[in-house]
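Justification of resources, computational component.

The compute hours requested in this renewal are based largely on the per-chain cost of generating structure records like the one below. Each record pairs the submitted sequence with a full structure-token output. That output is archived, and it is also reused by downstream analysis tasks.
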Amino acid sequence: MPKEQKITENKKDHHDYGRVVIVGNPNVGKSIIFGLLTGKYVTVSNYPGTTVEISSGYTTIRDKKLLITDSPGVNSLTPMSEDEKVTRDMLLNKTVDAIVLVGDAKNLKRALMLLLQLSEMELPCILDLNMEDEAKAKGIEIDYQRLSALLNIEVIGTIAPQRKGIHGLKEAILKPRYPSLHTHYGNVIEEHAEKIMMLLPETTISKRSLALMILSGDESLREWLVAHLNKEDIRTIEDLRDEAQSKLKEPISHIIGHSRIKLAEEIIKGVQKKGTPEAGFLAKKISRLTIHPVFGIPILLLVIFSFYEFVGRLGAGLLVNFFEKIIFSRYLTPAIEKVVKFIIPVAFIQDMIVGQYGIVTMALTYAVGIILPITATFFLAFGFLEDSGYLPRIAAISNRAFRLIGLNGKAVLPIVLGLGCGTMATMSTRMLETNRERVIATFLIALAIPCSAQLGVIFGMLGPLPVRATLWWAGCIILILVTSGYLASKIIPGEKPDFFMELPPMRFPAMGNILMKTLSRIEWYLKEAVPLFVLGTLILFVLDKVKILGWLETLASPVVVNLLGLPAKTTGAFLMGFLRRDYGAAGIFDLSRQGLLTENQVIVSLVTLTLFVPCLANFFMIIKERGIKTALSMFLFITIFALTVGGILNLILK
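The structure output for this chain reads:
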């Protein structure tokens, strides 16, 4: 294979554009680099594991059209998680013209470990060392010219939020080269790798890299091997792997890993100097306090309180009142009603658009007038936590507690996201390493994590009541969350993954990035969630027209009245709770405001509704992520469990 390549000369595939893949460790700014190269924004986060889907965008550099793909963050290309498998499979299954390896300038070793694997795959690369400013603040100086000469590839330094170095990176993409990084893993491994290579088919990466993955015990390759080899060859490969391991005292994966570390450290000695760090005493002090076993807890409580005040008062208070009561109720909805009744004479269609269960009067009013303001403020606050570097610290300080429920600190992200939107949180469980963790997290989000809109209504109801009412509600939910998670961790089979995460430095976020991120997430909400609001409203409309909705209320009333001790009118609120949990909470809020619920009934209704079945949008997302069987099992269990807990609580309070 030639040692140099230009994108314009690659003729492996018949396409008129070059394929470029961005690869890198988590939390090094890959997604920001992707956005700057393509002009297409994806969620940019200061938290490992955020990029869980593949995003692509086109760009043109010097009249050459390029398809640039952003891959999930990886620590190794011998996969240990779903994210790493996705990235490795991208390189394994498609021809790539250039790899942009984005590394953290503060941690050159991690980048070189990945570059060594890419070199073994025989893929053309460019090394982008991002966050140069943070490296200099730590007193780290890198000789880029010497490093480039040692690696035989272009090495570019960038500061992505400031767009520094992006022009040089674009120019380098047009002239990728094959890295000259090679290491010998010992006679036993090399000899058996040669024998395995003879049995492997030609593919987009080198046979030697595949052989090393197999010898390392990479089970994720088995599906690919079955698709490309016969059973006899696969058996021979497995025998060679076992034979090689039997001749060595250490696991092969450890030997290979130690050899790569040694080579990376030798390179670093020749190109990196450690000087005097710049002043940053306050940031370091704050960083240490946030993960302190004693002081970290009150800081976390203060952050949560500030978070809720921002979302609860600004989003659920001022903005909802403005959008729902003024924009929709006073101006938009009456205007649309007049237009619809004027141009559409059919009463059935009028009801479908502006009736009790109308697309405008219910679906859009709830989705845009009530839910969107709360969700948008949540996204802003959450973006600030992400980009400040505080979220990984929440993961670190909560890791021990999450271990009790079969998860680790990384589960903080989907759980906290669940306080914004359960649908989005369920999708974000992809970042967790094992299927066991993903199932447990999905279950807990569906069962006991109220969304931001629902929380706003709940606290609005609890506000006028004595503090004991809030303590009853919060105590029940936390107890059930911990108990359910603990039992689920004992029932659901699978291994507990190790918790490893590098903490980024604390920094004041760039508001431009937060606004871009918020707009991107709002776009996601409008595309993904609003159509489900419309669908759910249409279902209610049809059920009402065929008289099934009233029949369901009558059927469910004995359970609501006799078991939960609630008025019969709350039955409709629980049915609405499946459409959207906050719909149900709003219905109960209305009953409470009319004086139809006692303090005990408010507590029982809110606990039951919080634990009640996931909303329609979240239910569809659970089907998509976990499958129809798991989704229906969760739905059935949560329904029975919520009603049982509500009934027991009703007896206790009596």
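The longest strand covers residues 18-24. The chain has four domains: 7-173, 187-274, 302-331+355-528, 530-653.
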